[in-house]
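Hey, resending since the last one bounced:
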Amino acid sequence: VALENDPNNSDVKKQMQVLRTKMQEAKKKEKAAFGGMFSKTSLYDEKAGPELPVEPSGDNPKVFFDMSIGGEPAGRIVMQIFQDICPKTVENFRALCTGEKGEGKSGKPLHYK
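The structure tokens again:
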């Protein structure tokens, strides 16, 4: 609207150019992220967090998910959960994985299938 009212205003022209540039950058990021859905691209420019070496501990429980695709076994994901760091969360997650908590208030099972 400002450009229509005063087409010779240099400040408005500069801001419109900045806006066009930012929109083009956003489209490039969107295309990189969603156009190559399964490639190693990221929508964000932040650096990945540091990868800390994890020492397996025999004292911490392990849980697993058996994966299947179309009813065919696809493998197993084994996770060690760190009870020494966050015991309550670990116990809740372990119970969720095993299904030992039964059903919730809504009658739905409290486990993964």
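The mean pLDDT is 78.

Sorry for the duplicate.
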